[in-house]
Amino acid sequence: MPTDMNTSIKTIDEYIASFPKDVQALLQKIRGIIKKAAPKATETISYGIPTFVQDGNLVHFGGYKNHIGFYPAPNGIEAFKKELSKYEGSKGTVKFSLDKPLPAALITQIVKYRIEKNKEKAASKKPVLKKSIKTAKPTDEQLVKAWIEKLDAATKKEIEAVRKIIKAASPKLNERIKWNAPSYYYKEDVVTFGPYKNGKTLLVFHHPSIVKIKSPLLEGNYKDRRLLYLEGSKSIVTNKKELIRIIQESVKLIDKK
Predict the structure, then answer these.
(1) Whether the Cβ atoms of residue 230 and residue 6 lie closer than 8 Å to each other
(2) Which of 186, 195, 191 is nearest to 64 (CA)?
(3) 67-71 and 94-97 as β-strands: parallel, antiparallel, unpaired?
(4) Model-level pTM?
């Protein structure tokens, strides 16, 4: 499994290759189902997970410890609420267990439904003179919120708990999306969330001063960064004090430059 942050994953092939063989097979399977249902869609990585785009974001999918996540937007869930009732999920998420076959026919129906919905949405947009277009740039807060909304409930709970610790550790830190994940900076980049894999929350400290901080939580022997893993809610609570210390020491070292 890769230990680098999301910025190292540029394609769906790279994303899938980062998982164990059995999970890779399921990820390739759902990818193939989607491609067959939406042959005109293009593939990309968005919010750190595989994404199909056709008249806007069509569907996303991702691998997790015990399931494959499928994200066909809230209207895709609502339209097939009865058929999806046997699966765990939330407003915009469906969880397909790793030990059960993927429902190819149902996924195909949902993808085709999303194609039509995106097409309708695109057709409803009236042409506007270029000079009159005024698109407000999303704020950092809005971008972070959108990223978090893509997570399944369990992952979201752990990410939110860690975010709360980071933001409370130092009022000097600012939050934004960078490298396709929530990232925190003060004068320079300090720490960024890495991919959530195998039930572990990864934090990547990537300012050069981090190598001066000694902690049993910090892993890696890189010249300008360290990795920190938190496995589950209990680990987050247990290591809260040390995580705060690392962040505060990072800010102090940056101030001394």
Answers:
(1) no
(2) 195
(3) antiparallel
(4) 0.48
In this predicted structure, the answer to whether residue 89 has a pLDDT above a threshold of 50 is: yes
pLDDT recorded at residue 2: 29
Expressed as residue numbers, the domain containing 230 is 140-255
Q: Domain holding 223: CATH number?
A: 3.90.1150.200
pLDDT digits (tens, 9 = 90+) for 188-222: 999 999 998 888 999 999 999 999 999 999 999 99
Q: Which token pair is 231?
A: 């496995």
* Residue whose entry in the numeric block shows the structure tokens 């893993």: 229
Tell how strand 94-97 and strand 88-89 pair up: antiparallel
What pLDDT is attached to residue 60?
Answer: 97
* Amino acid at position 149, single letter: E
Is there a domain that residue 126 lies in? yes
Number of domains in the chain: 2
Residue 9 banded pLDDT, cuts 50, 70, 90: confident
pLDDT tens digits along 70-86: 999 999 999 999 999 99
Can you tell me the distance from the alpha carbon of 88 to that of 109, in angstroms, rounded to the nearest whole number?
18
Same domain, 197 and 230: yes
| d(C-alpha 192, C-alpha 249), whole Å | 16
Reply yes or no on whether the pLDDT at 146 is more than 70.
yes
The label of the residue with tokens 């190292």 reads 8
Q: Please classify residue 190 by burial: count the beta carbons closer than 10 Å to its beta carbon, then call 0-12 exposed, 13-18 middle and 19+ buried.
A: buried
Instruction: Tell me which amino acid residue 11 is.
Output: T
Residues 59 and 144 in one domain: no
Instruction: Identify whether residues 124 and 44 lie together within a single domain.
Output: yes
142 vs 39, 60, 132, CA distance in Å? 31, 19, 24
